[in-house]
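Hi P.,

Sorry for the delay on this. The queue was packed all week, but I finally got your sequence through. Input first:
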Amino acid sequence: MPRLITLGSAPHVLLCPLPVITSVHSDLVLQFSHSYHEGSESRYILCAQRAPLLPGPRPIMPVLLELTGQICINDCYLTSRGHIDPNDPDAKPVAMCWIEARPDIVSRVYWRSVLPTLQTFMEHIPGPVDVSKLVAVAPDGSVRLQVMWLPDEEEEEEELEESLPVFDQFNNQRVPMSISEVPFGVAVRVVFSVEYHYDSNNLGPATMYASLTRIALV
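Then the structure:
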């Protein structure tokens, strides 16, 4: 059984804005570490470790990434009802939404490095990777990032209206009860981990996704 590394169990966690992680933390080595294993299914989470030539301890740290943008109107399921997979009606609903750049020039420039950074992460995954649940590129070159709320074991028994980590600018939890309550058109700060899922019984590619930790109005 491999040693599992999770956000809840790791003694150290690295929090960094997504667009600058590969430039600001050039002294770190990125890797994906085992975070879940059951039967043929495994999940891996993006982690960082100090370069081996540097002195001092080298703990493997799960990485939490920050990104500021706005919630896309299309394909938004960031509500207490979430989204149920039509191919698996017995599955629990999953809350998810796409994040995009704000309409101002500063935000668009800030977002230019999102796709290259995600591509850097992909280089650390062996074999083919499906990124359709993580990132989408429009014909005009604009990028969208999808985040999904995947509760841990302690939160799995809670309903989405209790566990979904959506907050206002005063740090009060504000779970949207319907699509009309989703804060479209305003700046939000999103915190998430980048992970991938692989089923050894399936000959298909690994699935890369962003697991939501927190989304809050700025």
